[in-house]
Every structure is written in structure tokens, then in C-alpha cells.
Amino acid sequence: MNARFFFNSLPVKYRAQYRDYYTYQNLIAVRAASMIFLVLNVVIRVLYLAFPVSLTKAQNFPEFNFSNWVFIIITPVFLIASNLFIVDYKKQKKGTTGMALLVFLFALYIIVCGMYSSFIATSDPSNALTLYLIALCLISVIFVFEYYETVLLLVAIEVFFTSLLFYSQTPATDMLYNQLISAILLSAFYFTSRYFFTYKANYYLQVIEIREKNTEIEKAGEFKNQVLGMVAHDLRNPIAAVESIAMMMELDEVDEETQDNINMMKASCAKARSIIDDLLEAARDENIAVFETRNTELNQMLTGIVADWRLQQSNKVNVVFSSSANPVFAQINHEKFHRVIDNLISNAVKFSKDRDRVDVRLSQQSDGLTIEVQDYGLGIPANILPEIFNRFSKAGRTGLRGEKSTGLGLSIVRQIIEKHKGSITVTSTEGLGSTFTIKLPATGAMVLGDLLKPAENSRQAV
Q1: Helix (H) or strand (E) holding 58
Q2: What is the pLDDT of residues 31-81, one digit of tens each?
Q3: Fewer CB in 10 Å around end: N or C, the chain?
């Protein structure tokens, strides 16, 4: 532990914030301790009333009786004051001098109560050290005091202790003995108090440092996304210009070699535009504060997506959708969820051989729904499986037909699914294929669908 606060306070930069932080904690401690102390004295008073004969015969009963009444009268003042200050603190979120003074006086009050009980009630200074020690230990552990407050408290305690020694007419030898013991106890009190101050101060500084680092990371992330968005947006213009030139060249009669070059230019532009779209999507999704969704019937949506893919693939890869016949509803952002399913099917097709099958399955459970996209192609190597959803990861691979990967697609997919309060996982065996599983939470419409579900579920396939 860093012990630099044993003999000084926090740096000026954090001092006011930390004071506000521990002032509230001190007020809570005052309220709790005063309540316990009051209840304890009320119980003692009840015992006085319940057993008047036996207790009144105890040694020094008048002094005990007097001290008990003093404690019962004074302690509620601290209890009421601490409650009022706590209410005030919750409104202002700031510590005041009055709050600090209340905590200081209460700490002194508890210690003096221990002295008073022993000195006055027992008339024996040597017995005072037990309650004195207990009070010092409690105060040093429960409350947080600044360096100067600790020193002032030590001085005040010593003044009271010496005054009580003189008041009880302690012999010089006993007085010297008690002062020596008191000095040892006060030294222990000081180091214990500063230890807990240092411990809590270091903890507070660590929390502040973490918050500042998080703020810096958030700002850096926002700046990165802004730059990413601007760069990606500005790249569209030159790519569009190159694409326009290629299209204009196609208007003229060209030889086969030139046509191949034009096709290469157009394919490169399309690929670059796809990468830019991924970059913009990644930056845009992170900056969205409000994620708009609407209740959507997923059977219809997934059927449409799969039908489009079947038209695109012709006889290359067979994309099949299966689901329960009942309506299945979910709160989704239609555009972004469409992108998720498109991306997963695209990946499945990319690593499937011609005439292979890709299954898209929808199922409904009591706690939500599940969408699975399964292929029977190459599968994902075990060493890159943990990185599959990381942005710009090395998990990106070239497809069976030469399709390139930006390393952003699955990262965007997970980002979108998490914004839907869902989750996505993957299982894969190399050479046997992969299964991506999306889980979404239940909605009110889904629960209604469960109530309307027929006794036997039928299956439909596209």
C-alpha cells in the first residue's frame, strides 16, 4: 500500500472530490453509531426501571445513572443532525464544514463517553483504559479524517484525558503511568486512522484513474469512429469516378483484353465499396444512442431473405429455411437484422461447395427464440475460432470461389445482435461445417403466439 498519506493529504486536484466522497460515508457512520449507542443506553435505562432494587445497590450507581441520562439526552442530537445533513448532502452532492464539524464532535463525544464512564463512574483511572481503547479503535476504523483533523482530535483527546486525571485527583505516579499508556494508545490511534485513510484514499484514486481512463478510451473511440467515417465517406468519390470511367469505356467497342481489364476495375470498385460500407456500418453502429426496433414476424422476413439468396445462387448452393408454422415475433431493427442474416448466409455460401446445402432454422422457446445458420462446408479451424467475432481479426479467410474478407462482417453482426439484447455463438468442426446461433429475448407478441399455438406444430420449408 502506498503510505504517502500517513503524514499529508491527497493532491489538491483530488482533495475536494475525496472530501465530498468520504463526508457522506462519515455521516452514514455517525447515524448508525449514534442509533446503536442510543439504543444501548435506552436498554440500560429500561433495566434500571425493571430491576431498581438490585441495580441501585451497585457501586457508584448515582454516577452511572447520571452518565446514562447524559448519553440519552445528547446522543439523539447527533442522530437528528446526521439525518438532516444526509438529506442536505443528497440534494447538494457536496460536503460542508458543518458536516465535517459534526463528524469531528461525534468522534470526540464517543471517546469522551468512554473516559467519563470509567473515570467518573468507577473513580479508578487504571480501569479507564479499557473503554478508552475500545472507543479509540472504533473511531479510527469507522471514520475517515484528514491529517489535520486527526492531529486536532489527538490534541483534544489528550486535553480531556489529562483534565479527567486531575479531576479524579490521581497520584503523580499513576498520572505518569496513565499518560504513558495514553500516549501509546494515541499513537496507535493515529497510525490506525491514517492507515485506513490511506487505504480508502488509494482505493478512491484507483477508481478515479479507472474513470479517467474509461473517459479517454471513450473519447478515443469516438474520434476513431469519426475519422473512420470521414475517411470511408471521402473514399467513395474517387471510387465512383473510377467506376464511371469503366462504364463509359464499355460504351465503346473494346477488345477482349480491354473488357477483362474493365471487368477487373468494376470488380475492384465493387469490393472497395463493400469494404467502405462495412467501415461506415461499424462506425455508425457504435455511435447510435437510440436503437429503433419494431415488432416483426420473422417467418415472413426470413422466407424473403432466403428466397432472394436462392435466386442469386441458382444451382450453386441450396439455401433452405425451416420454421414452425406459427407466427414468431421479435422486436428488431428490420434493416440491420436483414444485414445480419445476409452476412451469415453469405459466409455459409462462401465456404460451401457447389450444390451443398445451407440451412436457416427458426425455433421458439418460452424464454426467447433461436435462429441458426448452418453450412456443411470447410468449417473453421480451432485456432481462429475464438477470434471469429473480433474486428479486423486474422480469422478472415478467402472463400472457395476467391471471395475476400475485410474482417469486419462478423464483428458487425455481433454488434447488431447485442444491440437487440441478444447473443450469437458459433460451433464448428473443420471439414464438416459451421453453425451460427442467434438467441433473442422473448417479447409480448411471442407469449401471445405461444397461447395461440395449436396442439401439433407443422413444419414449413422454403
Answers
A1: none
A2: 999 999 999 999 988 888 887 766 666 566 777 788 889 899 999 999 999
A3: N
